[in-house]
Each structure stands twice: as structure tokens, then as C-alpha cells.
Amino acid sequence: MELLSPRVGVEKSPENVENNTALGRLVSAYPRARYLPLTRHPITTQRSIQAHLNRTLPGHRQNGQPTSGIAAWFETHRRILRYAATLPSDRYRRVRAEEVLNDPRPQLAAIATWLELPADPPAIEAMMHPETSPFASFGPAGSGIIGGNDPDFLRDPKPRSVEVLETLDEPAGWSETPSVWQMVVDLASHLGYP
Fold it and tell me: 3-class SS at 92?
């Protein structure tokens, strides 16, 4: 952080919220950090997880899917909300990915303002062009760095609008227990999904 000053460091690894220990370490290591969790509809999240698994493990059966992916979505967001409840309100802001991707300029301006970063039109315009970032590409050949979970984005790193599901109806075969899906629906509703 000292090397970056006066810039602000951003850490976005999903692994930071996979368990209480990892999130607790993050909170302890960065006591003044601000948290900006990005939520996504549970159904489109699971579809994305499935596409990632199919891409990275082609031909292999993914035991427990889609139930385990939905359970991970639920546990992750529940864990984030528990930690958020312990933070001062000025250090936590939740954003729905669908809103940022489908109406980016005002959403990015609001986030930048909250982070005390420039939110003027040139700053927002720069944010609209992630393809100019040195990180918006695959890692160098032979480096062992593969570069993110979404090779489709890395092939053409430009913002795209996304589907907005207007329902939380459970897709056929996704859960064996209605009470499990109801927990997902309750949490998704709390996060602002219809």
C-alpha cells in the first residue's frame, strides 16, 4: 500500500469471501478498507459457474451441480452480509452487477464518488474502456498466469449489457428441497432481486 500511495489499492479475488477465515484475515490486515461487494442474480451466477466448469473441465461430470453452486452463492452472500453488519456504513456499499453493466455511467460515478475518486466525465469515460488496462488480457505465454476466470471477456475486454432475470422461480431440477431454494429466494430478495 505504501508503494501505491497516494493511489488506492483494489483487491477483487473471490477467494477472499470463500470462508470466514479468509474474510477475517482481510478485515484484520486492512482495518481501514472499504468493501464493495458485487452481487449477481443467483440463477445467472450458477449458469456462469457451469459455463466456467464446462470450459475448464470439459467432459468431466461436476458432482453436486447446480445445487453446490447455488449453495456457494448463498453462503458467500450471507457471509458478506454478516461482516458488513460489523462495519461502519461508510465502509460498505453493495452494488448489483446487472445495474453496473446495464447502466454503467451513473453507477460508476456513484461508486467513484463513494471511493473519493474522480467521478467527472473524463474519469467515467476512462472506466468505460477496460480494454486499455494492462490487466485486461491473458498473462504472458509461459508465465503460468492465465488471467482471470472469463476468457471470453479477455478475448474482447469491453463492457457488455447482461440479461436481467425478472424471476426467482427455481429452474427445474436445481434443488431437491424446496426449503433450500426458499432460503436462496429470501436472500436474493434482500439483495434487491425480483
Answer: strand
Burial of 12 (0-12, 13-18, 19+ CB in 10 A): exposed
Closest CA to 107 of 129, 128, 79: 128
Which DSSP symbol is given to 35?
A: B
User: Do the Cβ atoms of 163 and 44 come closer than 8 Å?
Assistant: yes
Give yes or no for residue 121 having a pLDDT over 70.
yes
Extended strands (E) in the chain: 38-39, 95-96
Buried b / exposed e over 88-116, threshold 16 CB at 10 Å, is eeeebeebbebbbbeebeebbbebbebee
Residue with cell 464493495: 36
Which SS3 state, helix, strand or coil, does residue 12 take? coil
C-alpha cell at 182: 426458499
C-alpha dihedral (167, 171, 175, 178), degrees to nearest 10: 50
3-state SS class at 29 = helix
Share of the chain above pLDDT 70, in %: 94
Q: What share of the chain is helix, strand, coil (3-state, %, to 5)?
A: 50, 5, 50
Better-predicted residue by pLDDT, 1 or 60: 1
DSSP 170: P
**pLDDT at 156 exceeding the cut of 80:** yes
